[in-house]
Amino acid sequence: MNDTVSVQRYQRSDREATFALLRAAYPSAGSERLIRQWDWKYDANPFNREAAPYVLLLKDGTQLIGMLGALPLRMVIRGTEHWASHSCDWVVRPDYRDRGVARRLVLQHRATGRGSESHRR
Q: How many domains are contained in the chain?
């Protein structure tokens, strides 16, 4: 791994590569369960605030090495509507674990996932 590690937003064109990542990171029963849930959690979630779901992909060059999925949540606090996200489905390829690379996903999620204009009404 070198300076080519980057964080990018998921697009539907990343779907098959993302499923390959899930299969590489989890035993078959776990990965297949997550793949079956993908549409209702992400691609077809009616609460998505943008065209693409809020899933961050971690890449080393062109290789997908990790992801952080987040579900949009609408809540009312003291009568005012707010949007937030609940991060889930944290995945890192086994050969990249314990290297601290996932910290980039956390920092990006904190910077753009909470309170950004894309998540405000």
A: 1
